[in-house]
Amino acid sequence: MNAQNTAPETKKQRVIIDTDTGLDDAHAILYLLAQQDVEVIGITTVFGNCYVEDSAKNVATVLKAAGQPHIPIYGGAGEPLQGEASIGWYVHGRDGLGDRGLERVEPQLQEESGAEYLVRIANEHPDEVDLLALGPLTNLGLALQQDPQLLTKFRSVVVMGGAGPYPAPGEAVLVDANTANDRTAAELVFTLPNAGKLTMVGVNVTNRAILDEDALAQLRALPGPVPQLSAELLDAYNDFYQSKWGRRVSAAHDGLAAVILHRPDVVTATMTGPVDFHRLSEGLATRVALTADGQPVTSGTPEGAQIRAVTGFNFAEFRQLFLAALCV
User: Fold this and answer.
1) Predicted confidence band at 238 (pLDDT cuts at 50, 70, 90)?
2) Catalytic residue among 18, 20, 24, 25
3) Which fold has domain 12-326?
């Protein structure tokens, strides 16, 4: 027998992406599509950065640019489990992709809803599929209403949402749009059993995943649909963020979550505990109920599942991995 034919084929990481496809979501999708050891088996859409219909168009547009239009798209929730939808047009533009006049693709949606698809795949392929949740958690909340043990059936679940542990005294209290846009769904996701498989990648760490002016210049200099689309989206994202930091830089919130799903070794520190939820004037603070130094909070430990929250990551490695994928 030829020795070259005896090596076992490397098994790819099978991933589902749940997304409200705005600017940084599109970058995160492009990152995973570029990985030779990842197979994106389906993408579910949800409201948030844009309306759910625009989210699906944006997914189809990203898939076309990446040369992978065959990946199935599942239409998801257009509003939260309770209340009205909040749309982040002031960040991501009316179309979700920065209103840059991009020619968007009409999606061919599957018959199953996003929630139905999540339930089916997790039960048909237990411990084989990873889930990356990048938007409001409504699709996952709907799925958990059908199957409260659903989170235990994925191989891993990475949620871009929440804010890690409580901040140190004097530091700003952080909130994120994804949990604020559907508190009911967030409470289901962060309190139901997850068998240690759920990781919170909150704004406490994603705020540090900065793509600077050099990153945009690097993308602009390269031909091809992926780097050119990535550059256009990053430039649009910088339009919003320059009012925050006084520079044309932005935080790759969803990009960091995608890298952590694929390469969990970039994580350098975590804290684990139950999550509490407090409505603040600017949104919902969803945090692991621990102080910044890992001590119990004085208000008491809430009930619910244990959630692992990322508190540190290797920035240099993240940046290298992420930009390399967008430069393909």
Assistant:
1) very high
2) 20
3) Inosine-uridine Nucleoside N-ribohydrolase; Chain A (3.90.245)
